[in-house]
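Anyone opening a protein record will find just a pair of labelled lines. The record below illustrates this layout.
***
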Amino acid sequence: DVARGLRTRFTFDKAGQFAPIWAPNGGHLVFTSNRKGHFDLYQKASSGVGSEEVLLEDKVEKFPTSWSPDGQFILYTTIQNVRPDSDLWVLPLSGDRKPFTFLKTQFNENEGQFSPDGRLVAYMSAESGRNEVYVAPFPGPGEKWQISPGGGVNPRWRRDGDEIFYLSPDTKLMVAAVNGKGSSFEVGVVKPLFETRV
């Protein structure tokens, strides 16, 4: 509450709670918590009223990264303890709610972000030997496009989908002009915006 300078606690479990993401309408938050010995996905009304709903529980470590604009899918990263790399999975919020793979390779893939129209996902992959930002169609399969020419992490879409922001290896905030509104995807000028303190 900015006017009164008050903060309201959202979660109360003594375990850790991490990686909150907003529902498109702002009505709920999904986050991960290790209160049962592994990181599972929980949902709670953003007002803080009511109890938390377990969305996905198993022994795989899970971290939500993006909620689709139509509210139907949660994109999340999994980390296997027996195989220390990360993959991108999708949790449908209707039907049988059975998770499915978005991207699973021998390399690390994470930080998935739905485009504003929900047709594309920007993500980070180390398949080239270093972290780079890519875009691929959702739900896939399909061609992927590299966004960052010299390394990048933490992609985020501009609200209209015409630009992707990310952090370069030297912690500059970069911006790439993109056009994905048609059947093809185009990457335009990529340039630095400013230095960060990350």
In short: The two ends are 27 Å apart (CA to CA). The first strand starts at residue 17 and ends at 22. Residues 134 and 146 are 4 Å apart (CA to CA).
